[in-house]
Amino acid sequence: MARLEVAIGPITARNPIFSASGTYGHGLEMTGFTPIERLGGWVSKTVTLHPRHGNPAPRLCETEAGLINSIGLENKGIDHYVEHVLPTLVGIDSIVVTNIGGERDEELVELAARLDGQAEVDVLELNLSCPNVQDGKLPLATDPARSEAVVRRVREATTKPIWVKLTPNVTRIGDMAVAAEAGGADGITAVNTLLGLSVDWRSGRPGVATVQGGYSGPGIKPVALRSAWECAKRVSIPVVGVGGITSADDVLQFLAVGCAAVQVGTSAFSDPSRPGRLAEEVGALLDAAGIGDVRDVIGTIRDGRQHTPGAAGSPSGAAGDGAGRERDRGQPCASKT
């Protein structure tokens, strides 16, 4: 089988498949379906400085092509995480990424400092982009200057690698990635959920109590893929792609646009064992394509313009030959296998 090991900055993972924050809890909840060791890495549910009860119900709403959530970062806080969760991860043969979030910069700095000495934690992922806890305020990850400043402060508080999770709800996500890199980030996670809304027109009731929530699932993959591509073009640090991944083909598409690894989230709701099978399926696709190393796929996207043989300077799609119309059609969009 093809080699699947990948390097994500200073971190080496056995394969490019990570769980995404929020869908695997704190790891043990999913071990009956997918042993953590089958993944390249596992990302915790967001941990905050103090316990959070989260948003009122309903907090989940299924849509035609995904899920809208408004959980609100419910968790038991950093003390519980350090005292009760991290001990269960001792000896885990997989990369452990702890996702941290907060409403103030100081909270993120304190969280990073608290986790700096925890040997079980390999990477910190800064959640600067949650759409469900801002009380009408924009997430940090919509402001390049603020993002750079808080990343720099967190960088000073820890020696651990830092990934910054960005929101797609901006005009130029590449600018946000550049700001995170300037602040000292070691990697970019692209992307968090899109803002979405669902409503029952008969009753007027929204799908989630907060009216809008974070939209995830297969429907956001083209947006996530473009966002990851834009980030990968703009920064020299690794990009971890996330958003709508359900198949091995999806994984390889994210690698092709420049991602070093991927995270799988919403698809685990419908099939909790899915993330654990993806590495084997990626290997099978690479074997069938005659590719011996998954790293040979990374960044292979090409210029989309098609070039037709002919005299230099001749107009494309000359009247009557149909060539222009064929070129306009391009190639079929990539489909799942």
TrEMBL record:
**Domain Dihydroorotate dehydrogenase catalytic, first and last residues per copy:** 4-285
Q: Where is this region: Disordered?
A: 302-337
Q: List, in alphabetical order, the Gene Ontology terms for molecular function in this entry.
A: dihydroorotate dehydrogenase activity
Q: Where is the active site?
A: C130 (nucleophile)
* Keyword annotations: Cytoplasm, Flavoprotein, FMN, Oxidoreductase, Pyrimidine biosynthesis
The entry's cellular-component GO terms read:
cytoplasm
CC cofactor note: Binds 1 FMN per subunit.
The compartments listed are: Cytoplasm
Instruction: Name what cofactor the protein needs.
Output: FMN
Q: Give the reaction(s) catalysed.
A: (S)-dihydroorotate + A = orotate + AH2
By its UniProt entry, which PROSITE patterns does this protein fall under?
A: DHODEHASE_1 (PS00911)
Q: Which family does the record claim for this protein?
A: Belongs to the dihydroorotate dehydrogenase family. Type 1 subfamily.
- In Swiss-Prot or TrEMBL terms, this protein is called Dihydroorotate dehydrogenase
